[in-house]
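As described in the Methods, two query proteins were run sequentially through the folding procedure within a single session, without resetting any intermediate state between them. The first query and its resulting structure tokens are shown here.
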Amino acid sequence: MNQLPILHHFKLCLLGRTGQSIRFRYSPDPGTLEQRLFRAVTKPVIPPININPNERRLRKMEEDRLRKENNPYRKFLIEKAKEEFLKPMENNMVLVFQQLYHKAREIVPVQNKLFLKDMHFKGFPLSILREAAQGTRYEMFTRYFLHSNIPNTYLFSEPTPEKCYDAINITKKCHFLLLLE
């Protein structure tokens, strides 16, 4: 009599639902015998290529160099940096700012105040500026002054003391703009 409830409980555990989920995996149809033979015969047999890790790294560096040299968008950005950054630098004052974290709407009032004083921000990636400045008189400026890869913004204005005073007064009230030396 005692065995009957145990067996009954045992059957429920084997046949009943357990707490574990049962996953049904999709298995594709293997196809007919002709299809399986065709796949087995036409499957390419390529031996694995064993490449030295150093050689793989050198190949990747060479591919990256070629990709960088033949990139038309990068060439376009370099030309744009020469026109919009290096040419205005000839006759204008440039203040270099490092931007700390801020929301996009926080800088709009600052840009508006500076725009009313005829000053505007420009920004370019540092690698683009370095390439654009090669062979110009600003090469040393980009090499030594802009040495870190922190995204900077550049404020352009006329080189008068009043404009410099206005720019510093407007930007010193912003907690997210740091004037670099």
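Immediately afterward, the second query was submitted; its sequence and tokens are:
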Amino acid sequence: MAERDESFAIFMAGAGPALLRTAWFLTGDTDHAQELTQAALVKTYVVWHKIDHATALAYARRCLVNHKIDVWRATRHEVVADLTSSGLEHEAASHSWSQPWSRSESLSCDGTVATSDHRDDLVRRLSRLPEQQRKIVVLRYYADQSEASVAESLGISVGAVKSAASRGLAALRQHAEGENEVRAQLVTHTEIQDPDLSRNVSPSIEGSLR
């Protein structure tokens, strides 16, 4: 048991922040993202002795996504599941959406600093996408899931994923210089290390496992 807990603690320290960023993009709320990440890590811990540790992050991400899908199906009053453009603009303006980037900077692919304006702009552009397109774009390019994995997670066909991803990127390109910039910004944001998002992930999970 001690060896199992030690190996999982190492996994949790490395995977927790990445899962938390994915959860935040799917929820738009730091507290909800914390809860979603905790649920995914608890489920992963339960089967830690059974799964291949080399693919544990993918397993935990599936748990996270599937748990979030269950929430989407259970309620239609959550912000991210039922947002209009005006509602999302209000969320962005109140920093609910932009908080994870408020005190951090990231490097773009050419080595320049991505400004908070660029990051907030990307969040606003993502927020304007229809719910399904937004989920697919985030899962496909931010969470780096394959088309088949996204299709399986959302219960739709690979063709539907391709179509929605294409339309989503096209919509984002309307306010960007091109598809490569959009992809680069999404990938760049996976490297963001924000203390507000990362704080207390391990202690909260560890407490729930005791």
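The first strand starts at residue 106 and ends at 107. We note this only descriptively and draw no conclusion about the first query from it.
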